[in-house]
Design a protein that fits this description.
Layout lengths: L5 H9 L15 H14 L8 E4 L2 H19 L17 H10 L7 E4 H11 L1 H4 L10 H19 L9 H8 L4 H14 L14 H18 L4 H17 L9 H7 L18 H8 L5
Helix pairs in contact: 1-2, 2-3, 2-4, 10-11
The structure holds adenosine-5'-diphosphate and magnesium ion (MG).
Magnesium ion (MG) binds next to α2.
């Protein structure tokens, strides 16, 4: 029986220098066609290690690898599989046979894998240049997320273990904000995962924002005294003086994380949200003062 597209099939298996697109329904012979093309490449003298047969799924990759091996086996046994009959009507030439004999013991150097598997093997063989752990493996996104979270939990428990250092920032946070600490750490870990090179902004050496702040509050205070009397202004100035007192000289010595964390809380006041130094919005703060201009 001659298939209607026999000539196209023959070309796909023998025109080894062209880039071809084969599109066909399930069960019409695509896998056989690829196996045939690879067998013809080997018969033309290409080394197995130079050939990459890439598929979409792992199942297809293993089927293809098996089909290639079976095809070569059959050809060497003097048999021609049905899908190769039109290509090799007289069987193998002597030269083709010799090439297959040479290729046969090295068939496992042939790459038959998925897109992911192929990329991974390239990355792995250049692991040092890629900065990769030699034991690294590719997993899909859900598995990766679960592994990451499991790893994070283990790390977290380890940090909070009985022998943890008292001033350890994680320990301090667990004591100071026990209800939020897990979410905060998870948020930071995810941020770091997305941006592995992210670094905290380092304070400039010798900077004393506490002195700058107290100075600025002082300037503001002097200005508001000289300005037209206004309850809103004097309320804010009062509030700021409270903060200036709280932060006066607070960075004079190198402080522990616990002290720095406590400094993040502006204490009782109406300008700031508690814990975190977020300024309230103008409306919220104004409501807190219960006073508006005019
Ligand atoms: N040219 C052909 N002549 C006869 N049978 C073929 C031919 N090509 C493929 N087959 C057979 O058809 C079946 C399906 O082939 P397969 O290559 O797995 O198709 P696909 O990959 O497109 O799903 C297999 O049993 C295969 O041996
Ligand atoms: Mg198939």
């Amino acid at each position: 029986m001659t298939l209607a597209d026999q000539e196209a099939r023959r070309q796909a298996m023998t025109d080894l220098s062209s880039i071809l697109l084969v599109e066909a329904a399930a069960g019409t012979g695509k896998t056989s066609l690829m196996a045939g093309r690879v067998a013809m490449m080997l018969a033309a003298g290409h080394h197995p290690g130079e050939i990459a047969a890439i598929t979409f799924s792992e199942l297809a990759a293993s089927q293809l690898a098996r089909r290639i091996r079976e095809t070569v086996d059959k050809l060497l046994a003097g048999d021609v599989p049905a899908f190769l009959e039109a290509v090799l009507p007289q069987g193998l030439s002597e030269q083709q046979r010799e090439a297959l004999v040479v290729a046969f013991p090295r068939l496992d150097e042939l790459t038959a894998t998925t897109i992911h598997g192929f990329c991974q093997s390239i990355i792995r063989s250049h692991g040092v240049q890629a900065g990769l752990d030699p034991g690294a493996r590719v997993v899909d996104a859900t598995v990766a997320d679960n592994l990451f979270m499991a790893e994070l939990s283990a790390w977290f428990s380890h940090r909070l273990a009985a022998d943890a250092a008292e001033g350890d920032p994680i320990v301090v946070l667990a004591e100071e904000i026990p209800l939020q600490v897990v979410n905060l750490i998870r948020e930071l870990a995810n941020l770091r995962r997305k941006h592995p090179d992210a670094q905290p902004i380092l304070p400039s050496a010798g900077a004393r924002p506490d002195i700058d702040f107290v100075q600025a509050v002082d300037d503001f205070d002097r200005w508001q005294v000289s300005a037209e009397p206004d309850k809103w202004l004097s309320d804010i100035a009062h509030e700021l003086r409270g903060l200036a007192q709280r932060y006066h000289d607070c960075l004079a010595s190198k402080e522990s994380f616990r002290v720095l964390w406590r400094l993040c809380d502006p204490g009782i006041g109406r300008l700031f949200e508690r814990k975190g130094l977020q300024l309230k919005t103008y409306d919220e703060a104004a409501r807190g003062f219960g006073a508006h201009r005019n």
